[in-house]
Design a protein that fits this description.
The protein is mostly helical. The chain has a domain of 96 residues: Transferase(Phosphotransferase) domain 1 (Transferase(Phosphotransferase), domain 1, Orthogonal Bundle), CATH 1.10.510. The protein is 33% helix and 4% strand. A two-stranded antiparallel sheet has the order 1-2. A hairpin with a 5-residue loop joins strand 1 and strand 2. The protein starts with 6 loop residues before the first strand and ends with a helix.
């Protein structure tokens, strides 16, 4: 269940992923296609919501990482709504970029091709700042 709440960042800048409750082994004998709808809807890939047809595999984690990066960049979740059903409908009907029309400082940074600012009370090492600049510069 890869989501912002499960990414722990130490003061030194080291990131750790937590909560592997629904993770699967990569050498799973079932062939890697799963059909149970598990996870948190705000970071859930369309394949998970549409499980009855083909199922899904580990590629859904790429979707979740994208949602986490967008949340970091924009400062808000990529899907609007407080109710799971509303969010699931938005994800299920996703056919292209989302939230790009929102007038938000995170998207202004995106359009200007700039990384998010570092808070005044945070000191990044040269290596961490280089990583930040390379990740968010396009």
């Amino acid at each position: 269940d890869l989501k912002a709440d499960n990414i722990l960042v130490e003061m030194s800048g080291i990131c750790k992923i937590s909560d592997f409750g629904i993770s699967k082994r990569t050498d799973d004998p079932s062939g890697g296609a799963f059909t149970a709808m598990q996870g948190t809807v705000f970071w859930m890939a369309p394949e998970v919501i549409k499980t009855r047809k083909e199922g899904y595999n580990s590629k859904i984690d790429i979707w979740s990482v994208g949602c986490v990066v967008l949340e970091m960049w924009a400062g808000m979740r990529p899907w609007m709504g407080n109710e799971a059903v509303a969010v699931m409908f938005q994800v299920h009907s996703c056919s292209g970029p989302f939230l790009l029309g929102v007038n938000h400082s995170g998207f202004q940074l995106y359009q200007a091709k700039k990384p998010p600012p570092v808070p005044d009370d945070v000191v990044l090492s040269e290596l961490a700042n280089d990583f930040r600049l390379k990740c968010f510069a396009m």
